[in-house]
């Protein structure tokens, strides 16, 4: 990125009354945690699952149709512990350095625990959940359960790549198996989710008539209704809102947002270092 453009972005941040960040999977990919492609991290930590099941990446491993729950939870427990122990990536730390003196909020589709390692919980909305928690798979009640101790028990008692049936987490209310609290057809949009989303909406209401900067970072086309489309809508409707979209492969915005937006095809790790 040219020095002039980096200066422009820094000025936009400095002049804004508030910054709303939309963070997608490209942020974690820039940090070295690519959940969608085969890479060295996967080979290091999950090569045995690749050898047995032919799984090629973390996303595929999570949604793979295993023949029994013991195999499924073998991958889940290893995957969750990997995310727990993975250090906060440099792009996230750089983003915090950029925002720490500003009024800001982060909406994210990421569930991989990277953002909560760096940012306070009251400034984030994890729209698609968080692997630090389990829920009932029905769900029969509105409660989330911390996953750490349950994952430790599963890993301590694993038989090869499988978790014995008696160690698979069960709902304490109804006895059905639990599942990670991440987006699927049984995802619990209960009190914790609603509270976070309310904080997001409150932030927008507070700054919609002020100088609001929208930073869309590493957002693809998988779930456009969460970040991309609402950000376009806010840019069009709010009088003093400006949108900056940064993505390695593709950065775009509608023609009618010309003059109120910048689209940059940049490596996010380098981009954040340069505007810090």
From TrEMBL:
Listed InterPro entries: DHS-like_NAD/FAD-binding_dom (IPR029035), Sirtuin_cat_small_dom_sf (IPR026591), Ssirtuin_cat_dom (IPR026590)
Keyword Membrane in record: no
Sites where the protein binds Zn(2+): 136, 140, 171, 174
PROSITE patterns documented for this protein: SIRTUIN
Organism: Candidatus Anaerostipes excrementavium
Coiled coil: none
Record-given protein name: NAD-dependent protein deacetylase, SIR2 family
Highest taxon, organism lineage: Bacteria
Keyword Signal: no
Domain Deacetylase sirtuin-type: 1-276
One of the record's GO molecular function terms: metal ion binding
Annotated keywords: Metal-binding, NAD, Transferase, Zinc
């Amino acid at each position: 990125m040219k020095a002039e453009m980096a200066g422009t972005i820094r000025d936009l941040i400095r002049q804004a009354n508030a910054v709303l960040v939309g963070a997608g999977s490209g942020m974690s990919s820039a940090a070295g945690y690519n959940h969608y492609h085969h890479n060295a991290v996967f080979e290091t930590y999950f090569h045995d699952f690749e050898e047995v099941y032919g799984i090629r990446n973390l996303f595929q491993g999570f949604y793979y149709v295993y023949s029994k729950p013991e195999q499924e939870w073998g991958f889940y427990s290893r995957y969750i512990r990997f995310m727990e122990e993975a250090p906060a990536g440099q792009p996230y730390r750089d983003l915090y350095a950029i925002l720490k003196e500003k009024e800001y909020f982060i909406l994210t589709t990421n569930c991989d625990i990277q953002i909560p390692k760096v940012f306070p919980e009251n400034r984030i909305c994890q729209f698609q959940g968080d692997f630090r928690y389990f829920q009932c798979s029905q769900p029969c009640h509105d409660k989330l359960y911390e996953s750490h101790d349950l994952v430790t028990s599963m890993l301590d008692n694993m038989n090869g790549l499988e978790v014995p049936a008696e160690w698979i987490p069960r709902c304490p209310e109804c006895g059905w198996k639990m599942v990670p609290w991440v987006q699927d057809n049984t995802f619990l949009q209960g009190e914790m989710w609603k509270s976070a989303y309310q904080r997001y909406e409150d932030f927008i209401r507070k700054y919609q008539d002020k100088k609001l900067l929208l930073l869309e970072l590493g957002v693809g086309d998988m779930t456009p209704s969460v970040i991309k489309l609402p950000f376009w809508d806010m840019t069009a409707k709010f009088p003093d809102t400006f949108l900056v979209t940064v993505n390695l492969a593709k950065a775009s915005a509608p023609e009618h947002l010309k003059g109120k937006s910048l689209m940059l095809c940049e490596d996010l790790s380098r981009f954040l270092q340069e505007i810090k």
